[in-house]
């Protein structure tokens, strides 16, 4: 339940800039995680969900509000909950990143997160952040403009949340637990879903497709969430153009398109005008597949929901299907769509691209393996890495160790560049880079400006798009391209005027991606590929942003009830000593 007290607004005008002083609202929610049976694709399974719902409940706030969410874990294993794309200024304690900002909430326990919405406006989402539990534990976050302010586009007649997800007909968490033990590949999903339903093109699903009723002649706002486990996703509505106005809780210069493409973990706000002949139209999506094209067994589900006009017409005829939905491997459509993303500049939403970069990093993202020589046979373990380092979770969270100045849980030697240089995008069927496993972090000074060039590699002939995500910060995407990054040629293509301001961005297959941000949020923050298979294999690191010069630019003190690392009693002794 949310609590919404009165919220007076005071407008001040200073040097032509609008400043708003708002008595922010405080909301309270209870999330109860428990198993519940669900039936899809003709099969019933038990799965962990929040408050008996799938997808989970939506959080509604205004910009500047604070939400307290008390998470009660009635499930069978420990987990955390993360607020994807929320900056959480000075408050890494409630970021919800397992073994990075907290230890898991164990079964039978609870923990209250304090979620502060400081600069976000639009659509974001929340999800579990332990292994693959987010497959069923997730929901949307709707962030309205501050009271007294409106959208930078005409107020829509209504809005609709569409959460794109992944369905397995079995308990995928048990399978992932075994995969983590053996190091083998992850399973292919059985279907994709929209608001929990596969839609008309899947078995035992035709009568269960999600339906959205609209009136003719209106403009509606659709809030899209890519909550899939691994995939980027194309989406379109038959017969209707989409006007893209926002992404990752930031506004964009509006543009019209027949389809959209969402990186894994991304959110998007689009307008649709209901100006077609009254009838039924499919809202459909399919994955954008960029992995090895020799593998054809990927999930080819066309997930679908139905947009239905109110009124009289033949409802027995089949809905129209979007003719312009790109194919699964349409690289050009994905690339051209991303090139159209440009930030909206206004007094209320200024663009502030960092121009005084003091830290530059060049980070390779790779699929790797470690070969094991046994007496009778050889075997291998799949890994993924950043700069040839595959992340290993410590026995207590990095934040606690950093804040308490505990040694032995991480090292400060994450590399600013790869240890080996070669033709990163050539066909490389073998991995000769010998990845290291470790808990290595990068330390940044408060408020320094950072530029990172991510480079996709083709080790194991397994280059793939990666959805790169940074906790606690948003960043400007200056450019992307195909091939090996060239610091002379490619920097000339950078957009320094109106680049999109994102929290999650696509690193192209066999390509590069450049971002910039200001490290102005003290704390411990994960940086990783959002795709589940790459994340559990180690495509992750941590950025530690040091405190500034005063309390207002320093990490807040921890709450008294942080989840403990129950399996590691020696940790508790160290924490007790450090707290004395």
UniProtKB/TrEMBL annotation:
InterPro entries: Cu-oxidase-like_N, Cu-oxidase_2nd, Cu-oxidase_C, Cu-oxidase_fam, Cu_oxidase_CS, Cupredoxin, CuRO_1_LCC, CuRO_2_LCC
Catalytic activity from the UniProt record: 4 hydroquinone + O2 = 4 benzosemiquinone + 2 H2O
Keyword line: Apoplast, Copper, Glycoprotein, Lignin degradation, Metal-binding, Oxidoreductase, Repeat, Secreted, Signal
Primary localization class, coarse: secreted
Sequence ranges assigned to domain Plastocyanin-like in this UniProt record: 35-146, 160-311, 433-548
Organism: Gossypium hirsutum (Upland cotton)
Compartments in which it is found: Secreted, Extracellular space, Apoplast
Pfam families named in the record: Cu-oxidase (PF00394), Cu-oxidase_2 (PF07731), Cu-oxidase_3 (PF07732)
EC number: 1.10.3.2
Cofactor descriptive note: Binds 4 Cu cations per monomer.
Species lineage: Eukaryota, Viridiplantae, Streptophyta, Embryophyta, Tracheophyta
Gene label: LOC121214603
Family per similarity comment: Belongs to the multicopper oxidase family.
The name this protein goes by in its record: Laccase
């Amino acid at each position: 339940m949310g609590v919404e007290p009165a919220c007076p607004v005071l407008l001040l005008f200073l040097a032509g800039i609008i400043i708003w002083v708002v008595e922010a609202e405080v909301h309270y929610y209870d999330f109860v995680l428990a198993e519940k049976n669900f039936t899809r694709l003709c099969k019933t399974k038990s799965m962990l969900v929040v408050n008996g719902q799938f997808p989970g409940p939506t959080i509604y706030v205004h910009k500047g509000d604070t939400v307290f969410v008390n998470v009660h874990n009635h499930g069978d294993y420990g987990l955390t909950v993360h607020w994807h794309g929320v900056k959480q200024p000075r408050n890494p304690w409630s970021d919800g990143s397992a073994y990075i900002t907290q230890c898991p909430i164990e079964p039978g326990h609870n923990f209250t997160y304090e979620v502060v919405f400081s600069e976000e406006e639009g659509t974001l989402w929340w999800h579990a952040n332990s292994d693959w539990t987010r497959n069923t534990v997730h929901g949307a976050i709707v962030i309205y403009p501050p009271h007294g302010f409106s959208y930078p586009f005409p107020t829509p007649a209504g809005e609709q949340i569409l959460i794109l997800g992944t369905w397995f007909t079995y308990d995928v968490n048990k399978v992932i637990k075994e995969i983590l033990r053996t190091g083998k590949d992850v399973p292919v999903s059985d279907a994709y879903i929209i608001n929990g339903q596969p839609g008309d093109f899947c078995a035992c699903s035709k009568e269960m497709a999600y339906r959205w009723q609209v009136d003719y002649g209106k403009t509606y706002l659709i809030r899209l969430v890519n909550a899939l486990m691994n995939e980027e996703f194309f989406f379109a509505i038959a017969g209707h153009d989409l006007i893209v106005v926002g992404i990752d809780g930031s506004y964009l210069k509006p543009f019209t398109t027949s389809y959209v493409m969402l990186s894994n973990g991304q959110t998007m706000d689009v307008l649709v005008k209901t100006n077609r002949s009254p009838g039924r139209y499919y809202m459909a999506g399919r994955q954008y597949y960029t992995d090895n094209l020799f593998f054809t067994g990927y999930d080819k589900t066309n997930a679908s929901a139905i947009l239905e006009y109110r009124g009289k017409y033949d409802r027995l005829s089949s809905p129209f299907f979007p003719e312009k939905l790109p194919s699964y491997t349409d690289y050009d459509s994905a690339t051209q769509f991303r090139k159209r993303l440009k930030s909206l500049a206004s007094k209320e939403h200024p663009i502030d691209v960092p121009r005084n970069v003091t830290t530059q990093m060049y980070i390779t993202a790779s699929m790797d393996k470690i070969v094991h020589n046994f007496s009778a046979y050889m075997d291998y373990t799949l890994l993924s890495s950043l700069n040839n380092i595959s992340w290993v979770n410590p026995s207590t969270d990095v934040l606690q160790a950093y804040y308490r100045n505990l040694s032995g849980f991480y090292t400060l030697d994450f590399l600013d560049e790869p240890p080996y240089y070669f033709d990163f995008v050539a066909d490389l069927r073998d991995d000769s880079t010998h990845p290291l496993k470790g808990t290595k972090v990068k330390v940044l000074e408060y408020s320094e400006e950072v530029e990172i060039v991510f480079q996709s590699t083709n080790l194991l002939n397994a280059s793939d798009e990666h959805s790169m995500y940074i906790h606690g910060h948003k960043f400007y995407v200056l450019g992307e391209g195909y091939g090996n990054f060239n610091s002379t040629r490619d920097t000339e293509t950078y957009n320094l005027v109106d680049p999109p301001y994102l929290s999650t961005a696509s690193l192209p297959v066999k390509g590069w991606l450049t971002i910039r941000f200001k490290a102005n949020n003290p704390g411990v923050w994960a940086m990783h590929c959002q795709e589940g298979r790459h994340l559990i294999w180690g495509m992750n690191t941590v950025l530690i942003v040091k405190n500034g010069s005063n309390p207002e630019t320093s990490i807040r003190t921890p709450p008294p009830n942080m989840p403990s690392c129950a399996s590691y009693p020696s940790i508790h002794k160290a924490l007790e000593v450090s707290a004395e």
